[in-house]
């Protein structure tokens, strides 16, 4: 790493101090951490899938009737396993991004059906929170673009899911698309809890969660927006908020 500090005397630049620092060890440690997370995530997927499968059978009473307390316990266990599976998938995606192994397959297609499908899939989540939720299709047809449906779909899902999770009951979430000159905008509007001013510069950082978000929703990996940003930028796009 190279650090340069200017030397200024009487408001005139007189020279500079250059500091060279060997960061090979830090890079090796960072790479080892990423490889460990990737390996651990792979190893965890199979047992978590087994827990989900077993608890799903029990909660659906396919192996016998449960009393109300047992059924409630199985429901909680199943949803905890689902959350764990989502966390492992996020960790795996993040490690692949860091290792440069997050492969893309681009095809030219219409993006509106993709956004509409994701919005529809997340509608039950919004309804369970009594939100005023809607997908608003564009007034005119939009040109096809090149995108990886699975990856871009994950990015869009992460943003909409955040809007739903961090909007209080009876609030509003709207998904819109529009074209301006050579740009296509996918817009997610919400009346959510907002982002504190001092947190805004960190919002797309890996593992970061706003202080009010942690109080509002204890569960969360802090990886959703990090992954979304990486995917959008690989599509030569940009992601931002206001």
Please specify the SSE layout and strand pairing.
Layout: E1 2-9, E2 12-20, H1 24-59, H2 68-99, E3 107-109, H3 112-121, H4 123-128, E4 132-136, E5 145-147, H5 149-165, E6 172-180, E7 183-190, H6 211-216, H7 224-234
Parallel strand pairs: 4-6
Antiparallel strand pairs: 1-2, 3-5, 6-7
Helix pairs in contact: 1-2, 2-7, 3-5, 5-7
Describe the protein.
This protein has 242 residues and is α+β, with helices and mostly antiparallel strands. Helices cover 49% and strands 19% of the residues. It starts with a strand and ends in an 8-residue tail after the last helix. Strands 4-6-7 form a 3-stranded mixed beta sheet. It has a two-stranded antiparallel ribbon with strand order 1-2. It is globular and about 85 Å long.
Largest sheet descriptor: 3 strands, mixed
| Cα Rg | 23 Å
Q: What is the overall silhouette?
A: globular
Q: How far from one another are the termini?
A: 34 Å
How do the strands of the widest beta sheet line up side by side?
A: 4-6-7
Mean pLDDT: 88
The tally of helices reads 7
Percent of residues in helices = 40-55%
Q: What's the order of the H and E elements?
A: EEHHEHHEEHEEHH
Task: List low-confidence stretches.
Answer: none
What percentage of amino acids are in beta strands?
A: 15-25%
**Number of E-type strands:** 7
Q: What structural category arises from helix and sheet content?
A: alpha+beta
